[in-house]
């Protein structure tokens, strides 16, 4: 055993592709399941939340405008980068959730595979959500889906990494950008994920990670007029109701908390929850003997 | 020498309106608890058409219980049997469509030309379309054997009374739900005639319940604990209140709310067709349409030419007796709505926009508003931001496609938009950038049961029509 003193990591937020501290200068203690100190995490303020929304909004045009193929490759790249840092995440998840190494490894493996699952969906989801519609008239009529915009996500409180990935990936796969509030008591895997995303070709602002008190940050996101949707996965029932009421102010799309087994391969619900359907009509005319009628 | 049109009224004799109507609960017409009633008038004449029961919270409770009771058997029926009930309903609507068209025109004030040629054909088509889904839900893309939600509480507006009823009831029944529907306070009659159609079709008791009343009746319905699904079409303000009401519950919610649709005309557009589209977009149904093209965005280089044509066209519109087959512009639905339109139009003038309307004589009785357009409108004006829900067009201009898109999207709403251009790539590029649920390119205000309809942003969420419209009524 070397007696070399290790270098601690300063955990920071991930906003707009950068790693700021909380503008409030606050941190809070993060401990493992036995109460041992692990690190000080930034305690985000409402201002941090608003800054994150600005960053997410700025990223919407580029990310939603990227080709689905490109988004798929970027998501796959996240899986590649995570695979290389697997040991780090296994250790962090084991500490965060009080799991054995093998159980933590199963969580991390499933999380990596989840990125792969959603990477494959980016250029397919539109084909199962869209349609051409046989209207009773001379019109070409096609419905297609597109991202809702900025999605605020309250990550699951218990599943610090697999749960986190399971709520971020579907939202961004379809071209939304997100502001995610990490598990309050176990934020470190989320903050480390920011470091992975920063080196995975994910454009800055597409995913913004905040740590801190969910009760402090979430109301700002739920009532924010420039947030289009909110995933309440990490909110208790009473709190979720309060946030849903606040979200009605600009008619955010709301995904209510529901019992989810994060280990199970998901369906498409978390993608379709944050998609909008647009239907375009155009006259077709006809090409009869007399030529075009249009 | 001037030509005038001789009157060409559609006969009223085809419809027999009873002096009073009760609530339709559990297959029977019944008085409201306490016997409270309200009058429904014809907006074009202020003639009282009938007296209608005013449903209370107690009545809503009765209706929800009836729907709950009926749900068990209705949802257990084979889809093919539910389908046949809906096909029957569609056919009876077709048979009685002239009667219903006249009734709707009387109660709503819209021209018979519209109820006869647009509303009623679409109502029948909607039931026919969803009838066919009832036994094919396994193939709809929502997994095997998707289940209904239970009792649907549905609240609809007065602008397309029977069509909105069809949009709500047809998919709900096809998927195995039962319904309690609250029609708008000013247009209750066609829903009550629909109750009779349900009886003729032999629909089991309690599957469809109609509770007439006002906003308090609707509020009691959406708040009722026995309701599993809430569907609302109406104003954004009420939509938000409903979203707050159902927050924290398990109720599934879909909202189809207001709009401030941008109708964008590029310099290469076919002007005559664009003018027809603009007229169709904002003067159809007196502009009382959530997806109306109420903001005209015209490219600067053709603004003068387009406005000249448009004004010429508006001068030929015929306003008057809605039952006259030549009438283009009917009555505004209520005194209250007329006051709202008047107030907003006045604000346009007060804020500096320039008002224009063709010479147009308004009948003395009833609620009327001449087709009106405003030029010199800025994006900050109330008439460019707020939904007027009347025959009032706000004209703005732009220079580049990017500016057109930015202006079109500069709204809390996102329901509809129009694009007029002969250039395919420009049409598709602009359509893909518009934050709107329905985009009409080189056409406007087209509807079809197979075509999903609904909004982005504060125009609501969920879709009605097509395969997409099933999702709102399935536990998926």
UniProtKB/TrEMBL annotation, chain A:
It comes from the Bacteria. It comes from Streptomyces eurocidicus. SUPFAM superfamilies: ALDH-like (SSF53720). GO terms for molecular function: oxidoreductase activity. The keyword Oxidoreductase applies. Gene3D superfamilies: Aldehyde Dehydrogenase, Chain A, domain 1 (3.40.605.10). Keywords: Oxidoreductase. InterPro entries: Ald_DH/histidinol_DH, Ald_DH_N, Aldehyde_DH_dom. This is Aldehyde dehydrogenase. Residues 23-255 form the Aldehyde dehydrogenase domain.
From TrEMBL, chain B:
Pfam families: Aldedh (PF00171). PROSITE patterns: ALDEHYDE_DEHYDR_CYS. Keywords: Oxidoreductase. Its EC number is 1.2.1.3. Gene3D superfamilies: Aldehyde Dehydrogenase, Chain A, domain 1, Aldehyde Dehydrogenase, Chain A, domain 2. It is an enzyme of class 1 (oxidoreductase). One of its GO terms (molecular function) is aldehyde dehydrogenase (NAD+) activity. Residues 30-475 form the Aldehyde dehydrogenase domain. InterPro entries: Ald_DH/histidinol_DH, Ald_DH_C, Ald_DH_CS_CYS, Ald_DH_N, Aldehyde_DH_dom. CDD domains: ALDH_F16 (cd07111). The keyword Oxidoreductase applies. Belongs to the aldehyde dehydrogenase family. This is Aldehyde dehydrogenase (NAD+). It comes from Streptomyces eurocidicus (Streptoverticillium eurocidicus).
């Amino acid at each position: 055993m070397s007696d070399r003193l290790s270098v601690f990591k300063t955990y920071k937020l991930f906003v707009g592709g950068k790693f700021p501290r909380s503008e409030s200068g606050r941190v809070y203690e993060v401990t493992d399941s036995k109460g041992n100190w692990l690190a000080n995490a930034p305690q985000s303020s409402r201002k941090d939340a608003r800054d994150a929304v600005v960053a997410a909004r700025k990223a919407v045009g580029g990310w939603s405008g990227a080709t689905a193929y490109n988004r798929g490759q970027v998501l796959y790249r996240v899986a590649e980068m995570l695979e290389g840092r697997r040991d780090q995440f296994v250790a962090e998840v084991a500490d965060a959730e009080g799991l054995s190494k093998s159980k933590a490894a199963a969580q991390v493996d499933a999380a990596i595979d989840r990125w792969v699952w959603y990477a494959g969906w980016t250029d397919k989801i539109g084909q199962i959500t869209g349609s051409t519609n046989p209207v009773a008239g001379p019109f070409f009529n096609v419905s297609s889906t597109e991202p809702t915009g900025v999605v605020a996500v309250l990550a699951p409180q218990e599943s610090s990494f697999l749960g986190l990935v399971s709520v971020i990936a579907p939202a961004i796969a379809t071209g939304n950008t997100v502001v995610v509030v990490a598990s309050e008591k176990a934020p470190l895997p989320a903050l480390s994920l920011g470091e992975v995303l920063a080196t995975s070709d994910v454009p800055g602002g597409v995913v913004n990670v905040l740590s801190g008190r969910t009760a402090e940050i979430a109301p700002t996101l739920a009532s924010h007029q420039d947030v289009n949707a909110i995933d309440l996965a990490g909110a208790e029932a009473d709190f979720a109701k309060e946030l849903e009421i606040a979200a009605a102010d600009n008619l955010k799309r709301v995904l209510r908390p529901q019992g989810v087994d994060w280990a199970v391969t998901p369906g498409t619900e978390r993608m379709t929850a944050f998609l909008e359907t647009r239907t375009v009509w155009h006259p077709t005319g006809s090409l009869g003997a007399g030529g075009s009628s249009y | 020498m001037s030509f005038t049109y001789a009157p060409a009224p559609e006969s009223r004799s085809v419809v027999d309106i009873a002096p009073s109507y009760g609530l339709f609960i559990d297959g029977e017409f019944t008085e409201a608890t306490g016997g409270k009633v309200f009058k429904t008038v014809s907006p074009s004449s202020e003639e009282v058409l009938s007296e209608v029961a005013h449903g209370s919270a107690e009545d809503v409770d009765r209706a929800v219980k009836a729907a709950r009771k009926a749900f068990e058997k209705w949802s257990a029926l084979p889809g093919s049997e539910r389908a046949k009930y809906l096909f029957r309903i569609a056919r009876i609507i077709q048979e009685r469509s002239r009667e219903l068209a006249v009734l709707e025109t009387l109660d709503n004030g819209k021209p018979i030309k519209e109820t006869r040629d647009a509303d009623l054909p679409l109502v029948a088509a909607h039931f026919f379309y969803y009838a066919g889904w009832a036994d094919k839900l396994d193939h709809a893309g929502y997994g095997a054997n998707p289940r209904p939600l239970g009792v649907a509480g549905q609240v609809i507006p007065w602008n397309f009374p029977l069509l909105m009823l069809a949009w709500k009831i047809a998919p709900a029944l096809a998927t195995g739900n039962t319904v309690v529907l609250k029609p708008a306070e000013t247009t209750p009659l066609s829903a009550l005639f629909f109750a009779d159609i349900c009886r003729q079709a032999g629909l089991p008791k309690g599957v469809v319940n109609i509770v007439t009343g006002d906003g308090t009746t609707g509020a009691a319905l959406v708040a009722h604990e026995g309701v599993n699904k809430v569907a609302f079409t109406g104003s954004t303000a009420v939509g938000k209140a409903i979203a707050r009401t159902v927050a924290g519950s398990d109720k599934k919610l879909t909202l189809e709310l207001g709009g401030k649709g941008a109708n964008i005309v590029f310099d290469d557009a076919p002007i005559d067709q664009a003018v027809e589209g603009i007229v169709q977009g904002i003067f159809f149904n007196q502009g009382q349409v959530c997806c109306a093209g109420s903001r005209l965005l015209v490219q600067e280089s053709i603004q003068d030419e387009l406005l000249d044509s448009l004004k010429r066209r508006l001068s030929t519109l015929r306003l008057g007796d809605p039952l006259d087959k030549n009438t283009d512009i009917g009555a505004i639905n209520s005194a209250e709505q007329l006051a709202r339109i008047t107030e907003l139009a006045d604000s346009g003038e007060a804020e500096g926009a320039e008002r224009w309307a063709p010479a147009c004589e308004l009948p003395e009785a009833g609620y009327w508003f001449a087709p009106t357009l405003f030029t010199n409108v800025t994006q900050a004006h109330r008439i460019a931001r707020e939904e007027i829900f009347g025959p009032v067009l706000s004209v703005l201009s732009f220079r580049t496609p990017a500016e057109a898109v930015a202006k079109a999207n500069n709204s809390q709403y996102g329901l509809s938009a129009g694009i007029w251009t002969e250039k395919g790539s420009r049409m598709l590029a602009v359509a893909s950038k518009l934050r709107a649920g329905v985009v009409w390119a080189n056409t406007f205000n087209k509807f079809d049961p197979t075509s999903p309809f609904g909004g982005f942003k504060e125009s609501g969420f969920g879709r009605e029509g097509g395969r997409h419209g099933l999702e709102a009524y399935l536990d998926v």
